[in-house]
Amino acid sequence: MPELRQARVSDHGTIVACVHQWWGDSRTPAQARELALLLPKLFLQFFSGTSLVLEDEAGIRAFLIGFHSADNDQEAYIHFVGVDPGLRGQGAARRLYTTFIRHAAEVGRTEVRAITSPGNTGSIAFHRAMGFTLESGDREVDGLPLHSDYDGPGQDRVCFYKKIAL
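The chain above was modelled as a monomer; its predicted structure follows.
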């Protein structure tokens, strides 16, 4: 299993390249580039201390970009997680989440939040398996609570939260 470490600003280019490569099988190159836009360098400039990387001799194999809310000292937020397809199903994402949640609890955070798109059934199943609760939305589709236009017109999202404690 790859070694876990804190993310560094210098990881940015590699992480963006990983997004292009790892999502290349399920998206067009343009869609993968668009997805990578969710990871501007500022996330590592300002939140590398709360972000994590799994790395081995082959390089970065998984990452979690997350931060502690500046406006609510009880919350932490997981923004983006990526796992090399060759490592999926082996506990890498669970290890990243567990470590992030433990670190958040150690500094007094009592809740972790995350979001995903309604079509990302794998992410929804993973968050549920990790003990996250689906936050009530403004409408439901196929039993899934949605937050309409969360990220702009037509950009509905599923919101999760998890109560945590040491």
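The longest helix spans residues 92-106.
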